[in-house]
Amino acid sequence: MAGLAQSFLLRFMGRTYALMILAYPRAFRREFGREMRLAFSSEALELSRRTGLRSLFPFFLRVSSDWFVSVWKEHCDMPKRLITVVTILLLLAVDWLTFHDLFEPHTVRDYLTLAASLLVFLYIGLDILRRPDPTAARSD
Amino acid sequence: MAKRSHVDSEQPLSPAVFHILMALATGERHGYDIMREIALDTLGAMRLGPGTLYGCLKRMLDAGLVKECDERPDRELDDERRRYYRATDSGLRAVRAEANRLEAAVAAAQAKKLLGRRFNVAGAKR
Fold first, then answer.
1. What is the pTM of this model?
2. Which end of chain A is more exposed for a tag (fewer CB within 10 A), N or C?
3. Separation CA B29–CA B84 (nearest Å)
4. Cα gap A64→B23, rounded to integer Å
5. Is A38 part of the contact surface with chain B (CB cutoff 8 Å)?
6. In this predicted model, what pLDDT tens digit does every residue of A54-105 receive, in sequence order?
7. What ipTM does this complex have?
């Protein structure tokens, strides 16, 4: 009876965790999702064999809190890159529209647009250079 | 993000990255094996969840601190679905540098009498 309950609980938790993994960004999920499920089920199985069913609840709570933090972290990584790329493309398009005809007379506003976009490019470049390593203590 | 071929070993590592590299310092391991090794190394004080572990591994792969292994252990003992990781030279340099930093910090703490008598300078129990 206990064995049946154990296998049911393990399967239920495994399926729940498989659903939780869907919250990660697609690229991350594709690369590591299967292994994460495997690591989860291996640990759950070992815990249930060693210390019984009761230990599975604290384990699941621990994994859930880890899931919450890591999902947030992985998603934070993605939009930053996306926003940077979109900003650069948008500003390049604006600059090209403004200055593609060099002989056309330009207004002060055109030059201000160019200066602003150059400042943004400079900021992005410096930010990339100064960004701490992702493996460093603060970002983890 | 572009792959970094070189990581500054002067830069401090996070506890999770440090312990992952420690686990990989003795050879290749798969994800769950790394989790178990870290729990053993820290006497259960640090238990990484799969999300944190694979998030760190992803960043460490990008930074060139670890790499995936092509070689697999004995097939009878192995699960084909598992992927194995090993520390690169750059990863080993980084973990050594971090261990030295920690040793210096322990020595400083001991000099200020912040540690009990059971620790020597290297941090080992007497």
1. 0.70
2. N
3. 5
4. 24
5. yes
6. 888 899 999 999 999 999 888 877 667 777 888 888 889 888 888 877 778 8
7. 0.77
Report the 10 Å Cβ neighbour count for A38: 19
Residue B90, C-beta contacts closer than 8 angstroms, at least 6 positions apart: B5, B6, B7, B9, B64, B65
Q: Compute the nearest-CA separation of A92 from chain B (Å).
A: 21
Q: What is the pLDDT of residues B22-45, one digit of tens each?
A: 999 998 999 999 999 999 999 989
Integer Cα distance of A40 and B48 in angstroms: 11
Give the B-side interface with A, CB within 8 Å: 1, 4, 7-8, 11-17, 30-32, 35, 47-60, 62-63, 65, 79, 81-83
Residue with tokens 């005809």: A101
Partner-chain residue, chosen from B13, B14, B82, that has the shortest CB–CB distance to A35: B82
Number of residues in chain A: 140
Contact B28, B71 (CB under 8 A): yes
